[in-house]
Amino acid sequence: MRMKGILAALAILALTTPAAAPAVAHEPIFAPGAHVHSKGAHEVSLDYHRERASGAGENETAQELAFEYSYGVTADWTVKAVVPFVDKKSNGNGSSGLGDIRLGTKYRVSRIDRFGSQLSTTLLFQVKLPTGDDDSSPRLGSGSTDFTGGLLHGLESRRWYYNLAARYRLNTEGGGNLDKGDKVFLDIVGGVRPVLTEYRDADTVLFLELNWERAARDSLRGANVTNSGGWEMFLSPGIFWTYRNYAVTSGLQIPVAENLNGAQPTSDYRFKLTGKYAF
Amino acid sequence: MKIFVVRAFFLAVFLIAAVAWSGAVLAASHVYRLYVDGLACPFCAYGVEKNILALDGVEKLDIDMAGSFITVVMETGSVLEEETAKQAVDDSGFTLRRFEAGK
């Protein structure tokens, strides 16, 4: 019954929302990029993500394999859907299955084209649906419907790239009356194409990202959870390799600073590998 | 006899040159060059290839990233209108800066 409701909500969102999320071109690996698809462009991606956190008597590992589809409704508007399958382990317990499905959209509000470069400013909106099991241990989903809004700005040129992103995620109350704290994400990204290539050549761009994220304290039945919230910062080298309409991207988030409240496990690393096909 | 051979030689050269010239003119009439702003990477440019190849009468195209232009070859008898090209480039998320026919 619950699944039927979720599927109905998905269908309604797909039909009525300018929905979907970060979509491609030369996007950074972890931060969303300002670029959007061309009109009528389809893109499918298979995304593998792995992360580990430890400390405060905890040892957590999470893996996610996500199927992503995005589409260019117009030259400035892209919609996207992400269906993740999650495998989590925490202190000897494990669970796996469907995670929280994400729908989103990006709308480019400004585009400045010059010879060999493009400057874009884009709005982002994303919805995370409670499709993952929040009764399992560890939980596969948050059990909440969460909303993310953001402003993205970026330059793509023949040689250099930069990207700035600011996002806010509003988390609603999930399973077990737990309300995860809202989250702020700030990203600064630089990129370079070491070898200038021609259209039918394989092409490589290297990225270096600085990702900062801050969470407010969680709330359980209206009371703040002491060991929750705080901020972490990551330095994230990445690579974006393309050949024609195929792309492979990969990156590693390395924690460089943190200030988490109370006793919490801190991130050890986050790794991402993605294959994309545009058509 | 010698004069006849010389005349025949020059006539043959003239005919060959004429045929070559007319062929070049015919060929040039269905080749277009689109100068596009915003082209930065091959992966992003794939969208413009897709949208231009979808236009009626387009035989093939090539994209020059360094020069930021697209060479479009139309099928014989087909014409690429500037407005059509502009729309296809715009739909791809780029800007048509200059349009040249007969390149």
Q: Encode the helix/strand succession of chain A as letters.
A: HEEEEEEEEEEEEEEEE
Return Rg of chain B in Å: 19 Å
Low-confidence stretches of chain A: 6-24
Give the number of DSSP strands of chain A: 16
Please state roughly what percent of the residues of chain A sit in beta strands, choosing from under 5%, 5-15%, 15-25%, 25-35%, 35-45% or over 45%: over 45%
What is the topology, as strand order, of the major beta sheet of chain A? 1-2-3-5-6-7-8-10-11-14-15-16
Q: How would you state the average pLDDT of chain A, rounded?
A: 90
Radius of gyration of chain A: 19 Å
**Most extensive chain-chain interface:** A-B, 39 and 27 residues
By secondary-structure content and strand pairing, the structural class of chain A works out as mainly beta
Q: How many strands of chain B?
A: 4
Description:
- The complex is a heterodimer of chains A (279) and B (103).
- By secondary structure, chain A is mainly beta.
- Chain A has one helix spanning 2-16, and strands spanning 42-55, 58-74, 77-90, 93-98, 102-114, 117-128, 146-157, 160-170, 178-179, 183-192, 202-215, 219-220, 223-224, 230-243, 246-260, 266-278.
- In chain A, the strands form 2 sheets. A 12-stranded antiparallel barrel of chain A has the order 1-2-3-5-6-7-8-10-11-14-15-16. A 3-stranded antiparallel β-sheet of chain A has the order 9-12-13, with no helix packed on it.
- In chain B, strands 2-3-1-4 form a 4-stranded antiparallel β-sheet, with helices on one face.
- Chain B starts with a helix and ends with a strand.
- Chain B is built from 3 helices and 4 strands; from the N terminus they run αβαββαβ.
- The chains are: A mainly beta (279), B alpha+beta (103).
- Chains A and B meet through strand 5 of A and helix 2 and strand 2 of B.
